[in-house]
Design a protein that fits this description.
By secondary structure, this protein is an alpha+beta fold. It has 2 domains: 188 residues, Fructose-1,6-Bisphosphatase, subunit A, domain 1 (Fructose-1,6-Bisphosphatase, Chain A, domain 1, 2-Layer Sandwich), CATH 3.30.540.10; 129 residues, D-Maltodextrin-Binding Protein, domain 2 (3-Layer(aba) Sandwich). It contains 7 helices and 15 strands. The structure holds 2,5-anhydro-1,6-di-O-phosphono-D-mannitol and magnesium ion. The site of 2,5-anhydro-1,6-di-O-phosphono-D-mannitol has 13 residues, from strand 5. Pfam families: FBPase, FBPase_C.
Length: 334
């Protein structure tokens, strides 16, 4: 059997090779990894742990919070508060930023997360996950505020996601490719199982919630029609469709075998550009996908170049295999 490489060993080796992972950032990633193990454990208990169902509350976006949304948020906050590596945190489930309590030292990083992505799948035992993104706090910052988080995705120093599925995996980038770790449940350790993942540039698979088709704008209508036209249509190939309704699981499939994932803006609410959130979902996934050789746009521009204006900002998302993302983006420009 080949030698097992743990998350810690991988991060230390990356640091030696590229000199890009300071020890505070390594600590941060390891703490997030540890929190994801706890969340995985809670998810795995299901009905036996009384973790299913609604928490009886709503988040800032007016979405009903599930018990596991709240539990996962708490796990991430508690794990990351005391280590001295963070200046502040922000979460899809909290209205504003979470400052580090005075009794702990302040670090130089900002952590953002969607603690439990794919909430509609929790109660039906389908893959769900955690998404996170790390920024550096601005130089000279003393009292962290929301505006310190308003940095484009190009400024991310690390991003990753965990999938709680048949296996629990952690996918990570620090800007030197994308690597995947599988949770060894007996040992409680993250073990490196895929190095330098690359997304094929071409694909015959797409992911979109087709129940919204009647609301799509013309470029998306055109693109999906062309894919559905199959081998006799303008794209000259038959496409297959998959939609898990957990972005983590849909992106994980695309990372492993290619595909294009779309959550477009649509005509229902012209002022609301799509469903997904820039800071907790689109930016970290765009960083990962680009690091794996794919592309990510909002139909008009590269997601990572968008200057955020508010914490819970929404954005249209097209990401995955490069040639298909470029195609649908070009349709928006015509
Ligand atoms: P969540 O963070 O509240 O779980 O919402 C985000 C999820 C994504 O994981 C997924 O791609 C999308 O919402 C599914 O939306 P839909 O319900 O339209 O299928
Ligand atoms: Mg989400």
């Amino acid at each position: 059997m080949s030698k097992r490489v743990s998350l810690t060993q991988h991060l230390i080796e990356q640091q030696r090779l590229h000199n890009k992972i300071p020890s505070e950032l390594r600590l941060l990633i390891e703490v997030v990894g540890r929190a994801c193990k706890s969340i995985s454990h809670a998810v795995g208990k299901g009905a036996l742990g009384e973790v299913l169902g609604s928490a009886g509350s709503e988040n800032v976006q007016g979405e009903v919070q599930k018990k596991l949304d709240v539990i996962s948020n708490e796990i991430l906050l508690e794990a990351n508060e005391w280590g001295g590596h963070l200046a502040a945190m922000a979460s899809e489930e909290m209205e504003t930023i979470h400052r580090i309590p005075n009794r702990y030292p302040l670090g130089e990083y900002l952590l953002m997360f969607d603690p439990l992505d794919g909430s509609s799948n929790i109660d039906v035992n389908v893959s769900i996950g955690t998404i996170f993104s790390v920024l550096k706090a601005p130089e000279g910052m003393t009292e962290p505020s929301e505006k310190d988080f308003m940095q484009p995705g190009t400024k991310q120093v690390a991003a990753g996601y965990a999938v709680y599925g048949p296996q629990t995996v952690l996918v990570l980038t620090t800007g030197d490719g994308v690597h995947c770790f599988t949770l060894d449940r007996e040992m409680g350790a993250w073990v490196l199982t895929q190095r330098d993942i690359k997304i094929p540039e071409d694909t015959k698979e797409f992911a979109i919630n087709a129940s919204n088709a009647r609301h799509w704008f013309p470029p998306v209508q055109r693109y999906v029609n062309e894919m559905q036209a199959g081998v006799t249509g303008p794209l000259k190939k038959d496409f297959n469709m998959r939609w898990i309704a957990s972005m983590v699981a849909d992106v994980h499939r695309i990372l492993n075998r290619g595909g294009i994932f779309m959550y477009p803006a649509d005509a229902r609410e012209p002022d609301k550009p799509g469903k997904l959130r820039l800071m907790y979902e689109a930016n970290p996934m765009a960083f990962i996908v680009e690091q794996a050789g794919g592309a990510a746009t909002n139909g008009k521009q590269r997601i990572l170049d968008i200057q955020p204006e508010k914490l819970h900002q929404r954005v249209a998302v097209f990401l995955g295999s490069k040639n298909e993302v470029e195609r649908v983006t070009s349709y928006h420009q015509e």
